UniProtKB/TrEMBL annotation, chain A:
Protein's UniProt keywords contain Transmembrane helix: yes
Keywords, comma-separated and alphabetical: Cell membrane, Membrane, Transmembrane, Transmembrane helix, Transport
Transmembrane intervals: 41-66, 106-129, 141-161, 173-195, 216-241, 295-314
The protein, known as: Aldouronate transport system permease protein
Length: 329, 484
C-alpha cells in the first residue's frame, strides 16, 4: 500500500514539474504564494495523520453506538465487541420503559441549559463590560475580585453551606443554575474581547448622539461582540448540558435530576454494586431495576446526540472565539 | 427588543430571589414548630434509589407517629452511587438533620470526628425497648472508646466466607464438595471443568482468602490471627500461609482457571449469567436459596471458615443520630419504635398493606407489583430484621436460624477495637499505595509470589510498616487492658 502511494505521488510530482516547465515562471510564483499548496507527499502524510486523528475522535462514539445495540448476554460473555454476535434493541426498550423519568430529566436539562445560558451570558457580559471601561472608577478592584477566585476557591464544603443554608437553594431548580452562572475565566475572556473589539471612539459617538448606557450596551456593544458572546454562550451551554456534580450535591428529588446526573447515577450505582457484591446479591431484587452496560451506552447516545448535532451551527463562532483569549495588547 | 430582554432578565432574577427566600422561610418555621408542642419533623437520610411512593407511605407512617410519639418523619433516600460523597459533604457542612444511615469505616471516622451523637444515655431512657431487642454483640461491637454512636440493625452479626458452586455442574460431574475447606481442595474439580466446559470460566474472579481479622481491610498488611495468638498484630503477607495460598492461586492462574485480566478486572460476575463454576462470597442463613432465586438456577455453598463476628460484620448497617440534631430525644423515640414495633417496621420496609403487599392467611406476605415498581426499599439499611413479616417462600424458621447463626459465631480478636490512625497517617498513606499496587496481582494469582511477595514486604518495610504495627499493638494493648 505505501509503495503504491509513493509511485502515485511521484507520478503526480513529475506531472506537476512538467506543467511548470510549460506554463513558465508566473504560475510557479503564484503557487508558491498559495498557502494551501503543499508538496503532494507532505499533503498525503498530513491527510493521513489528520484522518487517523479524526477516526480516533469519532471511533469511541461509534463504538458506544454499537455497544448500545449489543445484547446484554453477549456483553457479559464476550465483553465489548466491534461486531457483536447478538444484536438487540433491548437497551432502547429499557429506556422507553423509564420514559417518565427520562423525559422529565431531559426537560430539566433543556430548561437549565437555556435559562442558565441566558442568565450566565448576561451576568458575565455585564461584569466584563463594566471592568473593561476606563471610566469605571473601581474597575481594578472588581477585576482583581474576579481574578482572585480563579486562584483561590472556597472549596466544596463552604460552597455547599452557602448554597444550602445561606441561600436555601437545596432541591430547587436554581441550585442547578446559579452556582454555574458566573465564571471568572469567561469574564476575563470577555473583558479582553471588549477592550479589543470595541473602540472607545464608537462609544463616544453614541454618547454624543444621546444614547443611554443601556442603549449603548444592547445596540452597539452587543452586536459588535457577537462572536465573543457566542463563544461564552457555547461554553456555558456545554457546561450546563454536561453538569452532573451540582445535581449530585444539591438535588434529592427525582423530578429535578438532569439527564447527565441520571447517567452518572446509573454509572455510580453499577460501581457500588461491583464493590458491594454481598449487599448486591442479598438485595438482588433492588438492583434488577439498575440498567446494565448496553442501556448505559444507549443513554450516552441519547444524551450526547443533541449537543453533537447542534455543534456545527456554533462552530464558526467557536473557532473565531477561541483565538480571543490568547491575544493581548 | 431591548425592553423585552430587560424584562425577561429582571423577571428571572426576581423569581430566583423569591424562590430562594421562600424556601429559607420554610426551614425557619419548621424548626419553631417542634418546640411549641407541635409534631417535630425528624429528618432521616438513608441509602437507596429514591422511590415514587415514598411520600404516600410516609403519610401513613406520620399518621401513626403523631399518635405514638408526636413526631413526623421526612425520609430522604440518596442513591447508592451518590451516597459516599454526598453524605460526607452533608456531614462536613454541619447541615441540620436527625438520623443518618452509616456503616463500616464511615461510622468509625465520623464518630471519632464528633459528627454523631453518643447515644448511651438515650439508649437507657428513650431507647430502652430497643436496647433489649438488639443483639448485645452488635452494640458491644460498634462501641468506640467505650461509647455507642448509633443503633445497629438487628440482623446477621457474624460473617462466614463460603465457596459457592454452580450446582448443575457439581451434579453433572458428581463432585464431592463437602470435603472442600481450603483453596487447594478445588484443584481436581477446576481441572475437569477446564477440560470439559469450554464456555465456563472455572473461577469467577475472586481474591484468595486468608483467614485473619483485619485492622483495616484484607489488602492492608495488618491482621490479627483468628486462631492461635490472638493478642498480637502481624503482617499477614509474611506468613507461610500467604505464600502457600498465593502459590496455589498462581498455579490456577497459569492453568487458565481464572480470566487473564483478573488483577485489574472490574467484572462483577452477575449471578444470573451462568458462566462460572466456583466463586467466593459472604454467607448468611439460607443464602443458597436466596442466591438460587436471584440466579434462576441452583447454587450450593460450603463454608471456608467458621462464622465469626468481625468489626465490619457488626457495623454493616447503623442508624446514627447527628450531632446537629435539634431534638435527639425524639429521634431516639422514633428509632426505638422502628426497631421494636412490627407495624411501623413493616410499613416502612414493605409499604402499605393491600397497595404494596398482600397478607396470606398464615401471616406470610407476597409483594404486589407496586412494591417492586414504586416502593422497593433496601431491607438491610432500615432496622430490626427479626420483626419483619416473612415472605410466603421464606422458610418458617428464618429468623430463628439467624439468631442461631449469631450465637454460634465466635468474636474476632479485635471486635470493638477501632484503631485511631492519626499518629501514623503518612506511613499509612504510602502503605495503602503499595498495597493497591501489589495486592490485587498477588491475590488473584496473576504474578509469581516467590518473586513478588518478598518484593512487596521489602517495600512495606521501607514505607515504615514497623512503626504502624507498633502503634496498633500499643493501642490494642491499651484497649485490651480497659476491657478487663
Amino acid at each position: 500500500m505505501p509503495k503504491k502511494l509513493q509511485t502515485q505521488s511521484s507520478i503526480a510530482l513529475s506531472q506537476s514539474t512538467n506543467d511548470m516547465k510549460g506554463a513558465g515562471v508566473k504560475i510557479l510564483r503564484k503557487k508558491y504564494r498559495d498557502p494551501q499548496h503543499l508538496h503532494p507527499v507532505v499533503n498525503t502524510i498530513i491527510s493521513v495523520l489528520l484522518g487517523i486523528l479524526a477516526i480516533m475522535c469519532i471511533f469511541p462514539f461509534f463504538y458506544v453506538i454499537i455497544i448500545s445495540f449489543t445484547s446484554e448476554e453477549s456483553i457479559v460473555r464476550n465483553g465489548f465487541q466491534l461486531f457483536p454476535k447478538d444484536w438487540s434493541i433491548d437497551a432502547y426498550h429499557y429506556l422507553w420503559g423509564m420514559k417518565a423519568q427520562f423525559f422529565r430529566s431531559y426537560g430539566v436539562t433543556i430548561f437549565i441549559t437555556i435559562v442558565g445560558t441566558i442568565i450566565s451570558v448576561f451576568m458575565i457580559t455585564f461584569y466584563a463590560y463594566a471592568i473593561s471601561r476606563p471610566q469605571f472608577k473601581y474597575r481594578r478592584f472588581f477585576t482583581f475580585l474576579a481574578f482572585f477566585t480563579m486562584l483561590f476557591s472556597g472549596g466544596l464544603v463552604p460552597t455547599y453551606i452557602v448554597v444550602t443554608q445561606f441561600l436555601g437553594l437545596k432541591n430547587t431548580i436554581w441550585a442547578l443554575i446559579l452556582p454555574l452562572a458566573m465564571n471568572a475565566f469567561y469574564i476575563i475572556i470577555m473583558r479582553t474581547f471588549f477592550l479589543k473589539s470595541v473602540s472607545e471612539s464608537i462609544l463616544e459617538s453614541a454618547r454624543i448622539d444621546g444614547a443611554s448606557e443601556w442603549r449603548i450596551f444592547f445596540q452597539i456593544i452587543f452586536p459588535l461582540s457577537l462572536p465573543g458572546i457566542a463563544t461564552i454562550a457555547l461554553f456555558s451551554t456545554l457546561g450546563y448540558w454536561n453538569d452532573w456534580f451540582t445535581a449530585l450535591l444539591y438535588i434529592d428529588e427525582p423530578n429535578l435530576v438532569p439527564l447527565q446526573s441520571l447517567l452518572m447515577k446509573i454509572e455510580a450505582n453499577l460501581e457500588f454494586m461491583r464493590q458491594n457484591m454481598d449487599v448486591a446479591i442479598m438485595q438482588s431484587s433492588l438492583f434488577d431495576t439498575i440498567p446494565q452496560e448496553s442501556a448505559k451506552m444507549a443513554m450516552v447516545v441519547i444524551a450526547t446526540l443533541p449537543i453533537a448535532v447542534s455543534y456545527p451551527f456554533f462552530q464558526k463562532y467557536f473557532i473565531s472565539g477561541l483565538t480571543i483569549g490568547g491575544v493581548k495588547e | 427588543m431591548k425592553k423585552r430582554l430587560m424584562l425577561l432578565l429582571v423577571l428571572v432574577l426576581t423569581i430566583g430571589t423569591i424562590l430562594s427566600a421562600c424556601s429559607g422561610k420554610e426551614n425557619a418555621s419548621s424548626e419553631k414548630e417542634g418546640k411549641d408542642g407541635q409534631p417535630y419533623e425528624i429528618k432521616w437520610y438513608t441509602i437507596g434509589t429514591p422511590q415514587k411512593d415514598t411520600a404516600k407511605v410516609f403519610e401513613e407512617v406520620n399518621k401513626y407517629l403523631k399518635e405514638e410519639i408526636n413526631a413526623t418523619v421526612k425520609m430522604t433516600q440518596i442513591d447508592w452511587g451518590d451516597w459516599a460523597q454526598k453524605s460526607q459533604v452533608m456531614i462536613n457542612s454541619g447541615e441540620p438533620f436527625d438520623i443518618i444511615f452509616t456503616n463500616g469505616t464511615d461510622y468509625v471516622q465520623n464518630s471519632q470526628k464528633g459528627a454523631f451523637l453518643a447515644i448511651d444515655e438515650l439508649l437507657n431512657k428513650e431507647g430502652k425497648d430497643l436496647k433489649e431487642a438488639i443483639d448485645p454483640a452488635l452494640l458491644e461491637g460498634i462501641k468506640i472508646d467505650g461509647k455507642v454512636y448509633g443503633v445497629p440493625t438487628n440482623k446477621e452479626a457474624a460473617r462466614q466466607t463460603v465457596y459457592t458452586f454452580n450446582k448443575g455442574l457439581v451434579d453433572k460431574y458428581n463432585f464431592d464438595i463437602s470435603k472442600v475447606q481450603r483453596l487447594e481442595d478445588l484443584e481436581p474439580m477446576l481441572k475437569v471443568i477446564k477440560e470439559n466446559e469450554p464456555s465456563i470460566t472455572p473461577m469467577a474472579t475472586f481474591k484468595a482468602y486468608l483467614p485473619y481479622d483485619y485492622v483495616f481491610n484484607n489488602e492492608m498488611p495488618f491482621a490479627f490471627p483468628i486462631d492461635g495468638d490472638r493478642e498480637h498484630v502481624i503482617n499477614q503477607f509474611e506468613s507461610d500461609l500467604a505464600m502457600q495460598t498465593y502459590k496455589t492461586m498462581h498455579n490456577y492462574y497459569k492453568a487458565g482457571y481464572l480470566k487473564e485480566d483478573a488483577a485489574t478486572s472490574k467484572d462483577s460476575w452477575p449471578m444470573d449469567v451462568e458462566n462460572w463454576f466456583v466463586r467466593m462470597g459472604d454467607s448468611q442463613p439460607y443464602a443458597d436459596s436466596l442466591w438460587s432465586r436471584a440466579a434462576k438456577y441452583d447454587v450450593v455453598s460450603v463454608p471456608a471458615e467458621e462464622p465469626t463476628t468481625f468489626n465490619d460484620s457488626v457495623s454493616g448497617s447503623i442508624q446514627a443520630i447527628s450531632a446537629t440534631s435539634k431534638n435527639p430525644e425524639k429521634a431516639m423515640e422514633f428509632l426505638n419504635l422502628l426497631n421494636t414495633d412490627p407495624y411501623l417496621r413493616n410499613l416502612v420496609d414493605k409499604g402499605i398493606e393491600g397497595v404494596h403487599y398482600e397478607k396470606n392467611e398464615d401471616g406470610t406476605i407476597k409483594d404486589l407489583p407496586a412494591r417492586i415498581e414504586r416502593y422497593n426499599l433496601p431491607t438491610y439499611s432500615l432496622g430490626n430484621h427479626f420483626i419483619l413479616n416473612l415472605y410466603e417462600n421464606d422458610p418458617k424458621d428464618k429468623w430463628e436460624k439467624f439468631k442461631e447463626f449469631n450465637e454460634s459465631a465466635k468474636p474476632a480478636p479485635t471486635l470493638g477495637f477501632h484503631f485511631n490512625s492519626d499518629p501514623v497517617r503518612s506511613e499509612l498513606a504510602s502503605i495503602t499505595n503499595i498495597s493497591k499496587e501489589f495486592y490485587p496481582a498477588l491475590a488473584t494469582g496473576s504474578v509469581d509470589p516467590e518473586e513478588y511477595l518478598p518484593k512487596y514486604n521489602k517495600k512495606l518495610e521501607e514505607a515504615g510498616i514497623e512503626k504502624v504495627l507498633k502503634e496498633i499493638q500499643k493501642q490494642f494493648d491499651e484497649w485490651k487492658s480497659k476491657q478487663k
